[in-house]
Amino acid sequence: MSALDVQEYVTDSADSRGRVNVGTGHGDTRLTYVVLDPDSLERRDGPNTKTVQSDGRLSIGSAFAGEEVTVGIVTTHS
Questions:
Q1: Does residue 28 sit in helix, strand or coil?
Q2: Is a pLDDT exceeding 60 seen at residue 1?
């Protein structure tokens, strides 16, 4: 896999629906992101592009429900 230029890292535990809190500053913003292992920073999924909910939660998928993950934010889209 090619290297990505990650602008920001956020580590959080995904809720039961696979959502992580990336902060209200990203609310209603489209992000391109990758899901990383929080210890090794090995890529587990992505890159993907989705819109963050207004409360700052980003849905990364139910496969990650209950897991601690690191989200690497690659790009924000206006």
A1: coil
A2: no
Give the integer Cα–Cα distance in Å for 8 and 51: 16
Give the N- to C-terminal CA distance of the chain in Å, as an integer: 27
* Distance of alpha carbon 41 from alpha carbon 10, whole angstroms: 11
- Judge whether 69 and 36 are in contact, CB under 8 Å: yes
Name the pTM for this structure: 0.89
Sorted by sequence, the CB contacts under 8 Å of residue 37 that are 6+ apart come out as 44, 69, 70
Supply the Cα-derived Rg of the chain in whole angstroms.
Answer: 11
Q: How far is CA 49 from CA 20, 29, 39, 62, 77, in A?
A: 14, 10, 23, 16, 9
